[in-house]
Amino acid sequence: MHHTMCRVQRGSFVYYTCSRLPVRHAFTTKAGGVSTGHCASLNLGFNRGDDPENVRENYRCLAKALGVPAARMTLTCQVHEAGVSVVTESEAGMGLVRPMAWQTDALVTALPDTPLIGFYADCVVTLLYDPATQTAGVCHAGWRGMAAGILPKTVEAMAGQLGARRQSLIAVMGPSIRQECFETDADVPTAMEALLGAAVRPFVAEKGEKFHVDLQGIGAALLREAGLAEENVIDSGICTMCAHEEFWSHRKTNGLR
Ligand SMILES: [Zn+2]
User: Fold this and answer.
1) pLDDT of residue 255
2) How far, in Å, CA of 238 to CA of 172, rounded?
3) Domain boundaries, given as residue ranges, for the chain
4) Cβ neighbourhood burial of 9 (10 Å; 0-12, 13-18, 19+)
5) How many other CB atoms are there within 10 angstroms of residue 186's CB atom?
6) Top-level class of domain 73-235
7) Which partner for 239 in 52, 92, 150, 178 could form a disulfide, CB atoms 3.0-4.6 Å apart?
8) Which tens digit of pLDDT belongs to each residue from 16-30?
9) CA of 148 to the centre of ligand 1 (A)
């Protein structure tokens, strides 16, 4: 785990924060919440067979624990593509108190008190914040989104549409499946190299007939290339598959969650 990451327990909730981000934020775990069965207990997804009332209650309790307004929590609708949406006043609360009207894996905003919510169960969710302009972003990237450049596109949206400054922008890549656990067939590194070029090669290890891809390494390289300072690109270092008792892992649960 990166030395700036902290494990926090508040009531029944356990979450991780990064001391470099000077804004309220959390990488949640499975702990806390009221969901049962395969969603026990902090399930925040409406599309996993959980009772929607339980999911809403989980958001209400989490917002209270974090000291953020539940009614302004704004959710991504993750489709493994590279779209980025700007959250303005008319979109605040989308996915929770307003119907979901976008399909977008990344959200950025200049609004205060507007929590942006991304979902991860092995995929890389990155929190971005520029203290100079108080602008924020959340970006979900599996290998497809990473290959499609959604991380630099999120930086572009923050800089181009919200005036964020690349030199002060901080990005924290959260708990996600790491190279030693992320075993793939040749299709994944081939598709990534087709989109990103030979630059991905140092991040792919061959093991027999299988491949292990370092998504966080690729993400960090893309963020630096997008103009972020090396010291402002932080990899949490936490593997969701290794730490599957604490975090949701898509692979560990065979896709159930
Ligand atoms: Zn692992």
Assistant:
1) 86
2) 12
3) 73-235
4) exposed
5) 12
6) alpha beta
7) 178
8) 999 999 999 999 999
9) 24
